[in-house]
Amino acid sequence: MARKTRRLNLAQGHDGSERGQGWRGAGSGRALVIFPQYRRAAQQQAGKVARDPERRLAEAVGLVQAIFLKVAYQEAVSLSKVVPATLLGGGLVARLCELIADLEIEVAFVDAQLTPVQQRNLERAWNCKVIDRTGLILEIFGERAQSREGQLQVELAALTYQRSRLVRSWTHLERQRGGLGFIGGPGESQIEIDRRLITERITKLKRQLEQVRRTRGLHRKARKAVPSPVVALVGYTNAGKSTLFNRLTDSKVFAKDLLFATLDPTLRRLKLPGGREVILSDTVGFISDLPTDLVAAFRATLEEVVEADLIVHVRDIADPDSELQRSEVLDVLRDLGLEERLDGSVIEVLNKIDLLPAEQANIVLNQADRDGRAIACSALTGQGAELLLQAIEDHLALGRDTIQRDVPLNDGKALAWLYSHGEIIAREDDDAAAHLEVRLAAADIARFDRKFPRKRSDA
């Protein structure tokens, strides 16, 4: 069955031609993947952090495969310096030009942030569509976004990206339209018209997303009126968040071994071992070098993380870059203003332990036992799921008070309220009342006493 996709208009060539419009359609879909590995001097010049080139190249290939292109050639290339005109050196550009022609490559993915000039020059040199890391991630997001909110967010990020591509070298945009006859002088050029139209659309999208933010705020306020704590799953893309979400909530959220399989946030109720209900939120995955404009566009979605009572950081412990991915996720959380919460309100889930060799898995399990905030598990097999649920319950219990209440046995509403909002520690019944020891947040204690003032007596 054909996959229905929503594509962004990022494929137009910098010379104004429409050659790029078929790079994901009628053609072969053959792609070349290049990861520029900076040497020390070039790293400092580009502001990059060293990373294993083979792992980064594998991630780049995964990004390309996420939009179902065929990777015909891949290479991690070493750069001694950054060339302003093309990023890559002249000899490398020439060598790759021959490869692209021989392999009939339609799109070349350079896993870096290209300037508009660099992208244009590489397209002219290679005679194929060239796309950088930001452009490819936007393509993936454009295909995966299903909700109206997600589509607005992606469009805002895409237009912000496109606006920076409207450089004077776009020859088809340099035509001028005549000014008013009685004013005289040059008219408005096509590039100016396009820039103005994009700016107007961006302004409209920001207004719409602000309305989305207010609506989300109202929804959160409504949830707090009948409070259930919110637990947000975060993590690097493809760490297994959606699989874990499905495991814990018995849901069928789309989960696949693809980068950015989840874009739109999903909320489900989850019952903890003690009977307390929480709301579990599945969120968009993070990735290294995530475009700033994309983070800004998805801020309304990420507010679910900011407002969460507890953050569960899901890590792919079987990935050799797991520690680096952890740092990337924590950096994004800091950017969201969650610096102070990283020490006390985050549980780490060491996921995919089933993919590790037995000896290494035992090491991870022992590490998790020593660290009270780390849980080793497999979302696929269910190993460690019960431990995670208990850890969530224990963390949410911090800051809650244990109280005693006597509730008449015929007062079903009061009993149900305590069971749904608190953790019942002990219960003894006599002929008239249930004598409960229950753990509740301070706000819930006050709310219960207001809601049921004559239907209970303090022990």
From TrEMBL:
Where is the chain membrane-spanning? none
The record's subcellular location field reads: Cytoplasm
Which CDD domains does this UniProt record tie to the protein?
HflX
Molecular function in Gene Ontology: GTP binding; GTPase activity; metal ion binding; ribosome binding
- Cytoplasm among keywords: yes
Give the record's GO CC terms.
cytoplasm
Residue positions annotated to bind GTP are 235-242, 260-264, 282-285, 351-354, 378-380
Q: Which cofactor does it need?
A: Mg(2+)
Where along this sequence does the record place binding of Mg(2+)?
S242, T262
User: Which InterPro entries does the UniProt record give?
Assistant: G_HFLX_dom, GTP-bd, GTP-bd_M, GTPase_HflX, GTPase_HflX_N, GTPase_HflX_N_sf, HflX_C, P-loop_NTPase
Q: Which Pfam families match?
A: GTP-bdg_M, GTP-bdg_N, HflX_C, MMR_HSR1
**What are the alphabetically sorted keywords of the record?**
Cytoplasm, GTP-binding, Magnesium, Metal-binding, Nucleotide-binding
Instruction: Kindly give the SUPFAM superfamilies that the UniProt entry links to this protein.
Output: P-loop containing nucleoside triphosphate hydrolases
Cite the Hflx-type G domain residue spans from the record.
Answer: 229-400
Region annotation (Disordered) maps to 1-25
Which family is this sequence assigned to? Belongs to the TRAFAC class OBG-HflX-like GTPase superfamily. HflX GTPase family.
Described purpose of this protein according to its UniProt entry: GTPase that associates with the 50S ribosomal subunit and may have a role during protein synthesis or ribosome biogenesis.
Family annotation (NCBIfam families): GTP_HflX
Report quaternary structure and partners. Monomer. Associates with the 50S ribosomal subunit.
Protein name from the UniProt record:
GTPase HflX
Query: Per UniProt, what is the name of the gene that codes for the protein in this document?
Result: hflX
